[in-house]
UniProtKB/TrEMBL annotation:
Superkingdom of the source species: Bacteria
Family: Belongs to the universal stress protein A family.
SUPFAM superfamilies reported for this sequence: Adenine nucleotide alpha hydrolases-like
Segments forming domain UspA: 26-160, 181-315
Protein name (database record): Universal stress protein
Gene (name only): uspA3
Length: 317
């Protein structure tokens, strides 16, 4: 794994009721700074913050604005740089882990496109995104920008639930969850195993069995469901064993365990497992074409919505 890990923090631009920049940081921004600090306590990172502004005017109008536009851009760049520096300091990211160009402010018609271009320019290994403010505490809700990136980003995405509490010791365990969209030993699992090995923490391989997500059962359907559930469990245990063997072949000194989470709905299945403040969840992407990019299917999105811990989504290959 490349060291240091190059981390791009997506910061939300904050405005007051007059449409002018606010001096206060939002809960979403606090969360991504805490996520970055959590990673910084785990490994050597190189961090840069980016604040985006969705331009309400067409590009052709910029030349007409002339010096006013450039002055506006310079003022906001300085304003959001100060907010980024304050966020990094207060969350505990050491100055030695800041990039030389620690903060950038960019504007354009599409936030997801701006973030993708900025990640490429920075050669980022990870883009950190906070949850939408409407999410329940401890859960992640994708904003329109996050949703677009979850179906297009060429760079892994780090998602942090709203108001989540993270371990002061950094990441203490890496988790990888299989879905129906996963292969036995796909690239997402390889990434997760490499992270765990590099950070010298255990790896837990997971699968979930959510109950009650189909139509209301009859007595006959319950019998069929019980039989299918038993067969599914046997197949899943065999898959988890193969995955564990594959990981240990590449990382013989790694501590690897596996578990199945079963419960009512996705929330119940995920909450059936014990989660710690030092847990990081990794997920793979559903391959859709020849491009390497993040693309999440319906099961992966359900896990993202219900995960109580930060999540990294890897592109498919």
């Amino acid at each position: 794994m490349k060291q240091p890990l190059r981390v791009l923090i997506s910061c939300r631009s904050e405005e007051n009721s007059n449409g002018k920049p606010s001096g206060k940081r939002s809960e979403q921004n606090d969360a991504v700074f805490e996520f970055a600090a959590w990673l910084a306590r785990t490994s050597d990172i190189n961090v840069r913050g980016i604040t985006t502004f969705i331009r309400p005017w067409p590009s052709a109008s910029i030349s007409k604005l002339g010096g006013k536009y450039h002055k506006w851009l310079k003022n906001l760049d300085s304003h959001y740089r100060n907010i980024t520096l304050k966020g990094l300091k207060e969350s505990g990211v050491e100055k030695s882990q800041w990039d030389d160009k620690v903060s950038v402010f960019v504007d354009g018609p599409s936030e997801s496109t701006l973030l993708t271009h900025a990640a490429k320019e920075f050669d980022a290994d990870l883009i950190l995104l906070g949850s939408d403010a409407a999410a329940p505490k401890g859960r992640f809700l994708a904003s329109s920008t996050a949703d677009a990136l979850l179906h297009s980003s060429p760079v892994p995405l780090g998602l942090v639930p709203r108001g989540v509490k993270l371990s002061k010791k950094g990441v203490t365990r890496v988790n990888y969850a299989f879905t129906n969209e996963s292969d036995d030993f796909d690239q997402g699992l390889r990434y997760a195993a490499e992270l765990a090995s590099t950070w010298n923490v255990p790896l837990r391989i997971l699968s979930f069995s959510p109950e009650g997500i189909t139509s209301a059962p009859t007595s006959r359907s319950l019998d069929i469901s019980t039989k299918l559930s038993s067969e599914w469990r046997e197949l899943t245990l065999a898959m988890l064993d193969r995955a564990r063997d594959g990981v240990l072949k590449d990382h013989p000194d790694l501590s690897v365990s596996s578990e199945i989470g079963s419960g009512w709905g996705w929330n119940g299945a995920i909450d059936a497992l014990k989660w710690k403040k030092g847990d990081l969840l990794c997920l793979g992407s559903h391959p859709t074409d020849a491009l390497s990019r993040v693309f999440v299917g319906s099961e992966t999105m359900e896990i993202i919505r219900n995960s109580p811990v930060p999540t990294i989504i890897y592109p498919s290959l």
